[in-house]
Design brief:
The chain is elongated and about 85 Å long. It has three helices and six strands. The longest helix is centred in the N-terminal third of the chain and has 65 residues.
């Protein structure tokens, strides 16, 4: 009788151990699924923003082609489409070209103002009470004549040669990265990929006359 009781206790203990192991395996699986879902959401967000940046760059190219007399001018004083380093300070738009007739230069000012508003949203725009989020968080934009948009290693760079016959738009924004350590050469840090490191989109827009 003593031996039978001992055998039943051993069997109950072994069954409990199996349950604990099963629960542990299930917990590991759930954690893994949650991590995979978070990574998937992050990847979808990054792809959506990349697509938005390409679309916005294409839109700017179309606006410049429609107003090429201004867009081919090589200096920012004559060409409002050129942006040396936009990081949030909106340029001025002197008139509303939807309600009155504009000159070619005024049309360019209106075009670039509306385009940048879509990028950063209306929260930081003076005189606008609505708060529409921008398509690219923490955006940085450079539009310039550039013969060397890529460095010697083939990587995109913010610097412009201000020469050559092609206007190039360069767009970067704050992106969530996989690195969660200290800052590195690619600009990754605890918050993700810094838009100041390198442009994420580099696109030729319009041929100039230089």
């Amino acid at each position: 009788m003593q031996r039978c009781v001992s055998d039943r206790r051993s069997q109950r203990g072994f069954t409990l151990l199996e349950v604990l192991v099963a629960v542990l395996i299930l917990a590991i699986g759930v954690v893994g699924m949650l991590g995979l879902q978070a990574a998937s959401l992050q990847a979808n967000r990054d792809v959506r923003q990349q697509s938005s940046a390409v679309r916005l760059a294409t839109e700017l190219g179309e606006m410049m082609r429609a107003n090429k007399a201004v867009a081919i001018q090589a200096t920012a004083g004559n060409n409002p489409y050129l942006l040396s380093n936009f990081t949030g300070t909106m340029p001025s738009a002197t008139v509303n070209c939807f309600t009155q007739i504009c000159t070619s230069t005024q049309l360019a000012q209106s075009d670039i103002y509306g385009w940048l508003t879509r990028i950063q949203g209306t929260a930081a725009v003076t005189g606008v009470s609505s708060n529409v989020p921008g398509e690219l968080p923490g955006a940085r934009v450079v539009v310039c004549f550039d013969a060397t948009p890529y460095d010697g290693g083939g990587l995109p760079q913010w610097e412009c040669s201000n020469s050559g016959g092609m206007v190039v738009v360069k767009i970067g924004w704050t992106r969530l990265g996989t690195s969660r350590g200290t800052s590195t050469a690619d600009g990754s840090n605890a918050l993700g990929l810094n838009e100041a490191a390198r442009p994420s989109v580099v696109m030729p827009l319009i041929a100039g006359n230089t």
